[in-house]
Amino acid sequence: MGKVIDYPKASFKAAQEMASAIDALGGSCSAEMCAEKMGNKLSGAFSNIISSAQKFRLVNHKAGQLSLSQLYRDIKLSYTDEEKNRLLISAFLSPPVFLRLYERFKGKELPVQMLDKMLIKEYQVDDNVASRIKRYFIDGSKITGLLNAQNQLITVETTPEMEKPAEVEERTAVLESSTSFENDSLTKFLESDEFTFHVTGPGINTRVAIREEEDFMILEAVIRKVKKRFDSNQ
Question: What are phi and psi of 196, to 5 degrees?
């Protein structure tokens, strides 16, 4: 069973951009179509945006298909700026680590200089990504207006919708674990090396870089596309 990652591996801004791209494509699309729309390639970095957009509750991902969440639709259809910002804050604070950080420091000055060390020691964030997670939290707090010019997290009323629903937590755990290997030694080996799959054929010319377990979601989506094309020619 894989470890559940309680923090996003991409920024809130990137997650919003992905949701906007899906919206422009009609509300649902394949991962490959979304990557093309965003000017990206199918890669580990792109799969991180997918998983992060899920953690921010802006996007759903199932069987290689991406779709907009109800929360994104509520944000888009907000009647007032106040309602929109309240929902954006709800989305931003959906990852458990971000919500715990906010609850701990709301109304206080955020300890910016030591925040990455705190993330590692107290919030089980991986050493290699702690500085990025720190930046994602600070930047997202500024985007949503939670962090003022004095580096203080303003206090807003916490509502039940800011708590991650149990079923969403469970689905996230299944997603994280489904791309994990039981063999720890193999996992470490894959994290230290890169494998590149080059898939070419009628209407497809795609390279998929495998640097970590989550990258296999992208590779599986490409294989499903090839299989669908092959089946249609039978």
Answer: -115, 125
Q: pLDDT tens across 69-79, in order?
A: 999 999 999 99
Q: 162 pLDDT band (50/70/90 cuts)? A: low
Tell me whether strands 195-201 and 204-210 are parallel, antiparallel or unpaired: antiparallel
What torsion, rounded to 10 degrees, do the Cα atoms 38, 217, 175, 76 define? 20
Residue 227: CB partners within 8 Å, gap ≥ 6? none
Tokens coding 115: 């925040």
**210 confidence band (pLDDT: 50, 70, 90):** low
Q: Where are the alpha helices (DSSP H) in the chain?
A: 12-24, 31-38, 44-55, 70-76, 81-92, 96-105, 115-123, 130-143, 166-178, 184-192, 215-232
Pick the closest to residue 134 from 112, 150, 151, 149 (CA basis): 112
Chain centre to alpha carbon of residue 111: 24
Angle in degrees, 0-180, between the axes of helices 96-105 and 130-143, rounded to the nearest 10: 70
Q: 66: buried, middle or exposed (CB in 10 Å: 19+, 13-18, 0-12)?
A: buried
Q: Where are the domains of the chain?
A: 12-178, 184-232
Q: What tokens appear for 64 in the block?
A: 């290689």
Residues 219 and 206 sit within 8 Å (Cβ to Cβ): no
Do 226 and 201 contact (CB within 8 A), yes or no?
yes
Q: Could you report the per-residue pLDDT of 86-95, keeping only the tens digit for each?
A: 999 999 999 9
Instruction: Report the distance separating Cα 75 and Cα 83, nearest Å.
Output: 8
